[in-house]
From TrEMBL:
Enzyme class per UniProt: transferase
Modified residues (4-aspartylphosphate): 59
Superkingdom classification of source: Bacteria
EC number: 2.7.13.3
Residues annotated as domain Histidine kinase: 306-522
Residue span(s) of domain PAC: 225-277
PAS domain sequence ranges: 150-223
Record's keyword terms, sorted: Kinase, Phosphoprotein, Transferase, Two-component regulatory system
Substrates-to-products reaction catalysed: ATP + protein L-histidine = ADP + protein N-phospho-L-histidine
One example GO MF annotation: phosphorelay sensor kinase activity
Keyword Metal-binding applies: no
Lineage: Bacteria, Bacillati, Cyanobacteriota, Cyanophyceae, Nostocales
Domain Response regulatory: 7-126
Name this polypeptide is given: histidine kinase
Length: 523
């Protein structure tokens, strides 16, 4: 049995809510959870019969009974008093908050406000409650024995607890016992409490005093008590106290005295408040960051418009004039003059290609991509048709291991990714060597398809495997291997936007095998 393993039962008829709570709990680093789920109160009670959970997350309204009826049946099952508190947190919709507030016996979480932090905090509190109540139960049994057999042994046990163990008359007119933790927490002596049984009330914070008096009235009536309140120590410091009182009755049912446990929970309260503050701060930062990203996207769109219209227009004019000059006056120019014209045309075309790739990369970064089932065979046919001229010019040999599966992707983006990979495969080969490319797909892990593009090219050193996917990263001169240095950056960006991954296997001089991995959508 793992010491930190705890059993949590989620009773909720909403499947999505159950899965959300389960995910929140599995992210907890403090405990390892065994999570049971029930979509009805009846099933929840059956699971409880198999073993008492450490914590129960209970929907307020269930199809077959409400939370209160569930708790009543659970008390019968566990043979507990009606007033006893079970390890339950009730989950209630927003509109039931007022109704939930009628009963302070159990903690309530408003469903619309539940997040991972507050849910785990509530479960931790239940686990701690169970642990402390177990200690208390041990203490109660030990007290009965100690009062009749060995008060010394009881004191040795209780005085080593961090929590206060107290024994008092139902009307609080007498305090029979308090362990040394009272002096540590209240900064008052145990003797003063015994001689002046109500002196502990002097430390109660004015904001909580009336609620504490209500607690004393409940105690006098023989009810189980459970309250959190603040105290002010003699040095002026404020501490949070969690106090529970349990009635002890004789064989006839007459109320004899109360046994209670009080714990200093200041650190937990401060931590919870700090988490709440950090959560609010984080939400504000997210809103600000979202606004900044929106502004950046707007600026990027404006830049793309400028590039598309203001830069490409004079570029086309330059290309047009250079081509006209070559056509109309080429015969009048010598070889050097015609070479200059050729350089102008080629440079303008490279700049046009660069602008097109930049715009493609920009669109991938800001355009919403709607994924759908895409047959890789169809995409491959489209790409082969698109690159037909380049393939014939290079006399490239392309072998495709068909049939290829269906993946979840954005059709145009996937076609662009594969086209870039295939273009690279036939480009980066040794001079005079025929490009040979092998394309196949495989299932690497359940639910994922990996598409491979393997070439017989010049290969890539291992230290450059990540670098080549960055924008403007080139390993070779543009004169030897033309290109913009953006093609593989578009591949990575496109695949990641579709929820996938990219990678390669390559050794210098032995070719390269690029792969992309996307979700399998074969039906």
């Amino acid at each position: 049995m793992i010491q930190n393993q705890k059993t949590v039962l989620i009773v909720d008829d909403n499947y999505e809510d159950r899965q959300t709570y389960r995910r929140y709990l599995l992210q907890d680093k403090q405990y390892i959870y065994r999570i049971l789920q029930a979509e009805s109160a009846t099933l929840g009670l059956e699971l409880c019969k198999q073993g008492k959970p450490d914590a129960i997350l209970l929907d307020f309204v269930l199809p077959d009974m409400n939370a209160r009826a569930f708790i009543e049946q659970l008390q019968v099952e566990f043979n507990t008093n009606k007033g006893s508190k079970l390890p339950v947190v009730i989950l209630t919709p927003q509109q039931d908050e007022a109704l939930a507030g009628d009963d302070e016996t159990y903690d309530y979480l408003i469903k619309e406000k539940i997040d991972a932090v507050c849910l785990r905090f509530a479960v931790h509190k239940l686990i701690e409650q169970t642990r402390l109540e177990l200690e208390l139960e041990i203490s109660k049994q030990f007290i009965k024995t100690a009062l009749s057999e060995s008060e010394k042994r009881f004191r040795l046990f209780a005085d080593n607890l961090d929590a206060i163990i107290w024994i008092a008359s139902p009307d609080s007119s007498q305090h029979f016992y308090a362990n040394k933790a009272y002096e540590k927490i209240w900064h008052r002596s145990c003797d003063s409490l015994i001689s002046q049984p109500l002196s502990w009330l002097d430390a109660v914070h004015p904001e909580d005093y009336e609620r504490v008096l209500v607690k004393l009235q409940q105690q006098e009536n023989g009810q189980l008590t459970n309250i959190e309140f603040k105290i002010i120590r003699p040095d002026g410091s404020v501490r949070w106290i969690w106090d529970r009182g349990f009635p002890i009755r004789d064989e006839t049912g007459a109320l004899n005295y109360y046994v209670g446990i009080a714990e200093d929970i200041t650190e937990q309260k401060l931590a919870h408040e700090q988490i709440r503050h950090l959560t609010e701060t984080l939400e504000q930062q997210v809103m600000e960051r979202t606004s900044q990203l929106q502004a950046a996207n707007n600026e990027l769109e404006a830049f793309a418009y400028t590039v598309s219209h203001d830069l490409r227009a004079p570029l086309r004019a330059m290309q047009g004039f250079a081509e006209a000059l070559a056509e109309d006056y080429g015969k009048l120019l010598d070889e050097v003059g015609n070479e200059y014209i050729s350089r102008i045309v080629n440079s303008a075309q490279r700049l046009e290609n660069l602008i097109q790739d930049l715009l493609a990369y920009s669109r991938l970064s800001r355009t919403d991509l709607y994924l759908q089932p895409v047959n890789l065979n169809n995409v491959m046919f489209e790409v082969m048709t698109q690159l037909d001229g380049d393939l014939k010019a290079k006399n490239a040999q392309i072998a495709i291991s068909a049939p290829l599966p269906t993946v979840s992707a954005h059709p145009n983006t996937l076609a662009q990714v594969i086209a870039n990979l295939l273009s690279n495969a036939i480009k980066f080969v040794r001079v005079g060597e025929q490009p040979q490319v092998l394309i196949w797909a495989e299932i690497t892990t359940p639910g994922w398809v990996r598409l491979w593009v393997k070439d017989n090219g010049i290969g890539i050193k291992a230290e450059h495997h990540q670098r080549i996917f960055r924008v403007f990263e080139r390993l070779h001169g543009i004169e030897r291997y033309p290109g913009t240095g953006i093609g593989l950056a578009i591949v990575r960006k496109g695949v990641e936007r579709m929820g996938g991954r990219v990678g390669l296997e390559s050794i210098k001089g032995q070719g390269s095998s690029f792969w992309i991995e996307l979700k399998d959508d074969s039906r």
